[in-house]
Amino acid sequence: MTTIDRDVVIIGAGASGLTAATALHKAGLTVAVLEARDRVGGRLWTDEIEGAMLEIGGQWVSPDQHALKDTLAELGLATYPRYRSGQNVYINGAGVVSRFDGEIFPVPEGTEAQIVGLIEKLDALVAEIDPDSPWEHPLAKELDEVSFSHWLETQTDDQEARDNIGMFIAGAMLTKPAHAFSALQALLMAASAGSFSNLVDSDFILDERVIGGLQQVPLLLAEKLGGDVYLGQPVRSVTWNDAGVTIVADGMTVTARHAIVAVPPPLISRISFVPPLPRRQQQLHQHLSMGFVIKVHAVYETPFWRADDLSGTAFSPYELVHEAYDNTNFADPRGTLVGFVSDEEADAVFALSADERKARILESLSHYYGEQALHPVVYYESDWGSEEWTRGAYAASFDMGGLARYGSELRSPVGPISFSCSDMAGKGYQHVDGAIRVGQDTAAAIIALRVRA
Ligand code: FDA
Fold this sequence. Notes:
Helix content: 25-40%
Number of strands: 21
Distance between the termini: 32 Å
Structural class: alpha/beta
Number of helices: 16
CATH class of the largest domain: Alpha Beta
Largest sheet: 8 strands, mixed
Bound molecules: dihydroflavine-adenine dinucleotide
């Protein structure tokens, strides 16, 4: 088995680990990035499926994601706007299909007033929350003890208003049912995007895509690091003391002064730490779990919905596919729809055969776009729940009470070991922007230590 020695070893070649490695390398430190998979990018993955280029993981960029935007500019990657001309579609609990413009769904006047009121209330609360330290809010403990669904029940009796506001954080973001996470966790999700209004505004949060796919970010970062990135190297153990670490992967051993564990928090406990991590870390990692969503890609000969003056943007908390968008690739004559099936709905369709699942999902898309949606030329389901080195999507969040109890130690280093991941971010939490921000901060902290030493 090969043994190499470096200043810093990074476990995980996702956006976060590669960003940290790049910054350290630029500062003159030697690095090795060990990646379990046979590719880089983690939850960023662009692949060709039956002749269609699909972004199987993360893809959208929003205007406030400056860390990601700066990285795109540095790497020379161009973006293009998501198609949004025409009308959006909403389906209510009775199955009535309506078209609408703007952000507020076509609901009865009273429900609309409740939705607007809830958005204002959430925006006001979010304005008081620092996404980097939500546990410092004076009501943090109280807000972390109540589920988001229960919190919504205390605000309004209007079920449709609750279902819609709940959907934006539950099905659409944390991809867990609204009873499974706290109001504080919901506020962090919104604060990480600047405001709750930003999350509700698909033209903001799903603004642009990268020509050629967002996986180019980790691919280009890895290319610049060259031979310092080692694929097919799942790290099994980290032996550590104050002087440094010895890391054993399947095909190599790395000794280093510092280690960065850049994997999703629920996977950290798959690595044996010798001696074990302190009890606080061992506990806090167990209180974080991945959400679960199926990203469905349906490619058609043409973007047929555009001819019907539809933007492709569609929502319903009552549909199997709770949100869907025009996801046509840049300069592609074919049309692509992307839809999302979250949490308990995803559990239910994974209990079906692949054919039955496809039929149910396409049926749901047809409720928004009509019969033509039933006949894609390419159909693909991103299933991150079955990926050994991710185990869910989009990212990890705390269980009830976990954020106030453990959040402040989420990013605390232990001896020579630091932690870096989108799931540990404040601003950009659960997004590539957050992965990059935490990667930069983690690298800066190690560089600062070296300067002081
Ligand atoms: P990431 O999980 O990407 O990287 C961790 C790496 O560690 C992986 O490569 C893994 O293989 C490796 N690893 C794990 N254990 C290991 C071990 N023991 N040894 C060695 N390596 C190990 N974001 C966004 O900004 N816009 C969007 O539109 C979306 N949409 C979206 C859709 C879907 C379907 C998904 C799954 C995710 C998104 N996201 C997103 C989220 C975004 O993709 C995600 O937050 C970041 O890519 C995470 O980057 P990290 O580097 O933090 O973790």
